[in-house]
Amino acid sequence: MGEEDSEAELLAARFEAERTQLRSVAYRMLGSVAEAEDAVQEAWLKLSRSDAGELRNLGAWLTTVVGRICLDQLRFRVSRREDPLPEQEGRVRLPDPVVTGSAALDPVHGILVADSVGIALMVVLETLSPAERLAFVLHDMFDVPFDGIAEVLGRTAASTRQLASRARRRVQGATPAGDTDEGLKRAVVEAFLAAARGGDFDALLAVLDPEVVARSDGGTLVPSALRRGAAEVAAQAIAFARFAADGHLVLVNGSPGVVSFAEGRPLSVMSFTIHRGRITGLDILTDPARLGALGLGA
User: Fold this and answer.
1) Same domain (yes/no): 144, 266
2) Are 68 and 192 part of one and the same domain?
3) What share of residues in the chain are helix, strand, coil (percent, to 5)?
């Protein structure tokens, strides 16, 4: 093996050691598992074409490269207005859920949802401007210094700090409080699932907060919906359960959730926000195209 081949293999190994964190950064920035993978692959291409020997901190360099790639992608979305903001003009756009078995997180996907990055938080991140999202994600979630983020944004460190502060206030103000007891959350989700299957309206009211908000993202083929209040959400849960032959408890972004199937085909992925033993938020992905891309199996 020649010296160049040996150096290339060493560089590839060093990159692989950083891949899980890079994937995690990109998922938080883009809310899409597939786009996150693409961003990480693009970072590898940039690294392979650069003089890696001049990089003193490869992990930091790759993190900012992925951040810049994701920033460009977010700005492209805004310019094309591809994605509506959550609840904009009656449309709902949910980020990709990371669905894993109920026993434990798959080690490949677990890094994506470390540090309790649930769907509810991801929905709030979707409302930030691209620059705010970059500043918040890189600094608050991955401890990247403001000087490095400022270089990506083409701003001063002081203005970048202000961006992160503004984003932090919006996240803290909009992210609903949630229980942390995993056993309690699982019991609540199981109770919801049993009540919906049984058409038990009163039992659903018992597990739903009176001010519960349910959002469903049906993509371009199925109408999206935003529902408020326990009675409306309970009625919809019963109606939907009639179409789903099977509902399975899974982990959605590391927290108990439900995947529903009919004839082996996934109908929905449900993510729950639970506070004081009651469901305060329900985020439902029903978009057939995106569900198909998740590779779910009954």
Assistant:
1) no
2) no
3) 55, 15, 25
